[in-house]
Amino acid sequence: MIVVRSLILATAGHVDHGKSTFVKYLTGLDPDRLPEEKTRGMTLDLGFASVPGISFIDCPGHESFIKHLVAGQSAVDGACLIIAMNEGIQEQTLEHIRILNWLGTKQVMIVVTKTDLTDTKEDAQYQASEIYEQAQKLFLPDVRTELLLVSHHIPRHDAINKIKTFFKPIRQITNHFYNRFFLDRIFTINGAGSIVTGSFSEGEIETGTRGLIWLSNNKKPRPVVVKTIRHEHFAPQKWLTAGRVAFGLDGVSPEEVPRGSVLLFQEKLPPLARSLALNLDWAIEQKKQFTATIQVGTLCLQAKLRLHPKGFWRAYLEMPAPIMRGDKLVVRLPERIEGLGQTVAAGNVLDAYLPTRQIKSAPPQDTREFIKWCRESEGSEKYDLEDWALRLGLPNEEVKQYVDLFRKNIPQVKPEKPKMIDERLLRELEEKKWEGFVKEDELDRAHTLVKAHFVKHVKANHFLHNDHYNELLNWLESHFQKHEELTLDHARDFFKIGRKHFIHLLEFCDRLHFTFRKELVRKPFKLPSYPPPLSVRPTGARADGPQSGHPVSGY
Question: Does the reported pTM lie above 0.70?
Fold first, then answer.
């Protein structure tokens, strides 16, 4: 079955300027699906509607829901910026324009609503042209823009035709070392099971494909099988086109999948990113270190950010996540800044697996230079082709074009017999709980369990089952909500094991940056929250942020 590529368009604009009304005017469908949205008359979450050839993502305009707007704008062909004629450009309008620029949106239709409030059609045209000129100047020079007036004088099909004529389908399928599908909704349909939806932009998939859902609450990923594929009124057996799509999944229920989870198109969980090098463009003055939310697609994670003296940023994520080199992201603060909002920076990932030790130079943007940098800065002689594919975020076939830059006789990826998981040893480590010590002849099998993500390596021959690792993290979070510090007595009461052994576990937490030692106690590893800006650049203008430099060394 051949399925025609549909446009994916998102709405943006100040709260109550008519974004949902605009989508309903075009499609006849109300994108506000939640009862609270209908009661309050305000969009709180992403909404979806379509006409043949166009899929609309209705994004909320209120500043409290900007993260949903970023999620909706992350995989689209273009955006419709909605501006009410009676109010003009407002604060959220400016923040949304800044986000569109940062996310690289190249096609924007500036839609002026509430034009029927003017006395004559000529007045409406004149005021709309003025609003269009003001908004157009705030976009980057390479962004295509067009004006559309919404009025009861303009037939619906004329507006749809103008949209189809202006927008071109520019989203392309990309391939990575492992491909992802960022989920924006999961729900149940009677007789169809669990349904997930999102904007498809990586790889290809067909019915019967087995995969994993990485859960944003840091619980064990859930294996799933794709039972059905749905796009508008089509039900193809295979999907390899950029566009809005829904998958029927077997093996998971909506209650198990929190917002921000990601479907991975493979059965085995790959090594995930935790320590990132970022190139960021800022709208304000910034301190050298702070905590913030990093958002990639629908995925939102807390991170500790720290500035290297040369201008690059290092981010240490609260948990490992499926983020890769080249991913675009935005940085949001926990509190709103007057005249600016919460979204203060955006950029891309230069390295998703940045070493924790000192590095002498910055990860370059160019792929060939990045490979040389890896070899010179950290010694990657033992990398095989699959290691390079992971580090570069590219499939094995694409990595082969750079093989001339690798060391001579690079080990090729050879089909290996999968190493068997030692179920007996895994059960023993679960039973031993905090005292998961193994014998010398069991070390290789224990490290196999680590690589398979069943256990954590604490120190030497000391290992920790994942269930107890999660229990440890939950205890730390609960403890620091009640106490400012963690003493040895606190640890002894919790672990109920010998001092020598629980010290291993405390040092393990230090290495993972959950805690840090201060004399005889431990403190939660928290950086200062973001301060008020020293100065704010003109709203809507792009910051001349640092474009080169060094990523920060380890915390």
Answer: no
